[in-house]
Structure formats: structure tokens, C-alpha cells
Amino acid sequence: MRFSAFMVMLEKIISKVKNYILLALFCFLLPYRILAQEIQKSTTFVQLFGTKYYLHTVKDGETLSAIANAYGVTVSEIERQNKDKVGKIESGVLLKIPVMASNSTPGYTQQFVYHTVAKKESLYSICKQYSTTEENIYQHNPAAKNGLQAGMVLKIPVGNAIQPDKQDTEFYYHTAKQNETLFSMSNHYGVEIEDIMRYNPSLRNGLRPGIIVKIPKNNYKTENNDNDENQNVVENTEEAARTRARLKSDYTPCESYYYRRGTPIKVALMLPLFINDNYQLSEDLRQSPSKGQLYKNSEKIYEFYEGVMMAVRDLQQQGKTIELYVYDTENSYAKTGEILSQSTLKTVDLIIGPLYTDNVVRAANFANDNQIALVSPFAQKRDILLNNPYVFQVNPQNATAIVSVADYFANMPNASLVVIHNGTSEEETVIKSYRQNLANSYFAERNVSELPFKEVNYRNGGISRVQEAMAPNKTNIILMPSTKEEFITKVINELTVLQKNNKYDIVLYGSQNWERYSNLDVEFLQSMNFHYNTTNYVNYSNETVKNFVNEFRNRFNVEPSVYGFTGYDVAKYFIGEVARHGKYFEFCVGGKYEGLSTRFDFKRVSENGGFENNSTFILKYNSDFELEQMNK
């Protein structure tokens, strides 16, 4: 039991949490008088997620009230669109102001889309999808006040389209309507579809209602626009995210960022520490060692925290100033929400955690709304990444890991791949992923016309069918996508007999969990040339690893497990990225990073999505029964 180390860390955490409560920030607006002046409306526009905005830079003496009057919108609407700048309306602040029918220049007309309500769809999600408010929807759909019904058609305002004769001298800006096509647009404006596509590359993903389409005028020389630096409409979704970031008062381009010594890097660490529960359990332990124990999984979580502290110390020794805010989320969705509601969270440069999936989803939404990078150390949920450019997922999905496995086996000479399964739908999904990725890798490496890939349904013939699929003169790579221990151990035992009696060359590929099966010891797996894929691998012969282990042991009086190594690698890499590229480092992510136990190779999962780690390790037991990395 790690009693002494635990008590030391627990007391430090409790102390930190109390300090953060005492140091809570209070914002005060200092009223001051200004001379009345005329507000000059901006002529610069930007399109964000289908909605068009004026970009207004506040000048000396301007107030929200005066700005709102000039643009024909309410103060509350400006505050709603610029939540991070409330209380910061001073000279130089950039505000985004929605282009509405009431504040548009002559030639603007209100445009609508018609949305059919899906089953279980909420008004909140519809408002978020079209960047509008419930009041706007109710205004044009009074029946919606009585509740939404599946199949109901809503008329939704989505901004404005400039009439052709009132445009600027180069482009029309047209808001796509329901059922509208590029063909009809090209006919209406008298331009070729190819010209529309040239200035709107995002339309390759489809034309959706509410999208503002940039259409060149016939008298404009399109060939001169390739390097136009004054395009006001953002067409690329990653650039849209960067444009959102530019609206923040603390934005600095990651390409030109330079860390100045003494500048604090603010990091929020959100972990299920269960401080109150562990404090009570530690009291029980103090009174009766036979009764006390740590709360479930707390030992792993505290070790992850200790790894983070090791990384923070190393970065501080390199001259970085780091402010670490530690929050106890427990395993509570509500408590996570309370933490995220604190004003301090909006000022941090990086969020690490939470760990439980539901809490990660909630925190990821917060990160997206406030343009703060969030690192998910353990959760595997691709849905979180799809429309959130600020989330980093350290653990790759199984489908992503299969890509590296397929590439590894494709480079194995004279190999034959045999998949053994029970015919379940879950297994078929995995098999399909293996087949596709093996084909991509295999045909890229070799000049062949057929993939040596055979499937065997074990229920139809048992081990005899497996033997028929195996090749006597090749390396037989055996894949089993099942998660059933009884089935796996039965097949492996039968494969052992084939290997011994028929001299088959076998490479067994499976899950790291197989090591825990009671009938499969390490010696047995080593004899079957067992391989598996994992996110973490510690090479204890590495001198850097040895130094880390010694320092961790001396500081915390315990040997670090994979959780301590992971905490160190995650904190060292991501805080280091903030130091190198600033708060908005996600726009400069690139290249691979080799940690003590984790390799990072982050790639966006989609044009408008977050980042998933694409690097894993393929390991096997060598003749000394030690794990050896196979994919260098």
C-alpha cells in the first residue's frame, strides 16, 4: 500500500484546491464617460459556419450601445456573439456582428432554409446547427412554441444574400436555399459551375442550405484572383477555426509565436481524484490498516498526476513558467459542469482531461466554444473529434491501429493471412477493416493481383477448416477478432498441436488482454510467436527511461507504471507545444514525437475535426521472454 506517498500527494492536492478557491478572480467593469461620436460601419465580412458577420474593430470612445445602434442590432446580440469579450470593450478589440436584415446595406434580403425536424431532435441542436436563436425560430414558426414534432418543417432565417445589382465590384455572395443546385446558381448568375467551384472548394463536400457561396462576376478576371489576400469569405473549415481564433483578444499566430521567459503557461488538469472519498478512506486506513483502501482506480489516477508533476518540473527547469490548476471531477457529469462554469477555465491555454467519456464530451464542447486545446489521455470516442478542431485524442481507435498493423504484416515476406472467427456482426466489422487496410498496404508494397487473405468461420468445420486455409510453406499470420476468452484459448491450443505436428510457421496476432487469460502464460504465447498492438511501450534499457524511473522512485517512493509514464509524456509534449507555438498550437501541429512510453503522430480526423494519435507499437516476446518492439 502506497500510504505515505498517497498522503503527501493528497495533502498537496487539497491544499492546491483550497488555494484556487481563495484565488478566484472577480471581474469589475469600471464605468467611464466618453464623448459621443459617429460609429463608422465596417465593410469587412467573414463567414463562420454558414453565418455572415461584420468584423468591427473598436475605436477609442466607442461603447457597445453606440456600436449596436450603428449596426441595427441589440447589445445582447453583440454580447451573445462575443461572449469572451464581455467587459473588454476597449480600443483595438475585434467584434463580430451578425449581418441581419435590419443592419444590412441596401440590396440585402433575409434568406431562409426549410428544416424538417428529425425524430428526437431538439430546438437547441437546430439553433446551434444554423447559428440562430430560439426567438428567431419562434418568430417565423409560432407553432414551434407548442413543441417540436418529427416531420415538422421549420422556416429558419440564415442571414442574407446580396442582390446581384447591389454587390461589390468582384463577387456576389449567395446564401444557398433548400433544394437549390449549383446548376441553378450558374444559370441565375450567368457563370460556369467550374468558376463557382474554383472560389468555393468546400462545395466538393456538398451544397447545404445556409452556405454562403462566393460567385465571381462575369466582368472579373478570375485568373488574377488566385493570390488575392483580401478575400473576406472563409471557405476552408480549418481556416474558419483559425478565423474564430483571430477574434480572440489573446490570439497570436502559432507560426510567429515566441515564448518570453516569465510568461505563464496556464494548464487545467481535470482528473477524477475523489479527494473527499480518499480523505475519508485515508482516515480509515490510519485508524485500521486492515479496513482502509484507496477509492477505485485512484492509485492509477494519482500516478498519472505524479507523472504530470514530473513533466512540469522538467519544463520549469528549462525556464518555462507554468500555472497548474488541478480540478477534481470525480466521475460526475454535474461536477464537471460546475468546474467548466468557472471563469478561470476560459483563461487557460490547455486542458488535460477529464478521463471518463461523458465528462470528456462535456469538456470538449466547452473547449470548442472557447477555442482551447483539450487533451483526452485515455477515452476512445471518435465522435468527439468529428466536428471539434480543438480536441486531441491520445489513444487511437481500433480502426486507426489496424492501419499500422496492416502495414507491418504487408511488409512480412512470404506471408499468408488467416482470420478465424465465429461469424458475429462485431467480428465482421473488424475483419472488413483488416481486409481493406491490408489490401491498401499489401498492393502498395508488392506487384501482386491477389491478397493472401482467408477467412475461416470456426463454427463451420472447426480446426480442420483452419488447417485447410493454412499454407505449409509460408508464414501463417493468424488473426482472431473475437473477445471471448473460451473461444480464443480453445483455438490457440489447437493451433499449438498443428504447429508441433505439422511444422507450420505461425505468427499469432491478438490483444494484449490475452496475457491475462489463465490458460495462456507468457512462455506459451512466446512459443506461438505472439504479437499485439498497444499505445504504450517502455524500453527499460533506455538511459532516459532509467533516469525517469530513478527520479520517480526517489520522489514518490514507488515504481512508475504505464500511468506515470503516460502522465509525463502527455504533459511534456502538450505543454511543450504551447511553449513552442502558443495557445493556438493546433494550427502548427506536425511531425512525430517520441516520449518515454508513447509516440505521438497527430492527424486531423476530418477537415473540420480534431486530432487523433496515429502511432502505436507492435510488440512480441523474444527468446528471453522480454517484449520487443517490431515496428521501429
Describe what you observe in this structure:
It is a single chain. This protein has 632 residues and is an alpha/beta fold. The strands form six sheets. Strands 9-8-10-11-12-21-20 form a seven-stranded mixed β-sheet, with helices on both faces. A hairpin with a 4-residue loop joins strand 18 (593-594) and strand 19 (599-600). Helix 1 (3-22) packs antiparallel against helix 9, helix 10 packs parallel to helix 20 (562-581) and helix 14 (398-410) crosses helix 15 (425-445). The protein is globular, with a radius of gyration of 29 Å.
Head-to-tail CA distance between termini: 37 Å
Number of helices: 20
- Strand arrangement, major sheet: 9-8-10-11-12-21-20
Uncertain parts: 13-36, 104-110, 159-168, 219-236
Rounded mean pLDDT is 77
| Structural class determined from secondary elements | alpha/beta
What is the tally of beta strands?
23
Q: Considering DSSP H and I runs of 4 or more, what fraction of the residues is helical? A: 25-40%
Can you summarize the main beta sheet? 7 strands, mixed
Per DSSP, what share of the residues sits in E-state strands of 2 or more residues?
15-25%
**So what's the overall shape?**
globular
Oligomer: single chain
Radius of gyration: 29 Å
Main attributes?
single chain, about 625 residues, alpha/beta, 7-stranded mixed sheet, 20 helices, about 35% helix
